């Protein structure tokens, strides 16, 4: 009787020869399909470029509220030190003065907030102060929208038709002058 060799059973295996190729193809696929969020910066609508022959409008000192921020992050409003959270109230007074106090603007249409920094100021502090400035305008617009329609400003905007004129923006226009930073 011939001797039969007994076969040993092998365990089932998944072929791994092309695993590296598959992993590489998946990596390339995800790199191509994935979007990477980049820092977009601060959205600001720039005014149209002035004609070189036209003189820029003159702004009275009374209508200009000057906010300076130095490299250390110290905030000076009209030359006096102020906490960042107190800026908003000062800007609201300036915008809504209506000529009552000679230290603030004549009317909301003429009120301008000038924001100037030193070049080495941290980005976080810059955004913090700019948010307070914009927040003051939002507060004033909210208050006026409440007087007009009994709702806050975003709700008021949502109710407007495209043909309607935005009374709130006309009454309290956003006028922020971002001055060139001082070398520092």
How would you describe the overall organization of this protein?
The protein is an alpha/beta fold and 184 residues long. It is built from five helices and five strands, in the order αβββαβαααβ. The chain has a domain of 116 residues. α2 packs across α3. About 3% of the residues have low confidence.
A few lines on this structure:
This protein has a domain at 63-178.
Order of helices and strands: HEEEHEHHHE
User: Spans with pLDDT under 50 lasting ≥5 residues?
Assistant: 161-165
Number of strands: 5
Helix content: 25-40%
Strand order, sheet with most strands:
3-2-1-4-5
Shape: elongated
**Separate helix tally:** 5
Q: Radius of gyration from the CA trace?
A: 31 Å
Strand content: 5-15%
Q: What structural class do the secondary elements suggest?
A: alpha/beta
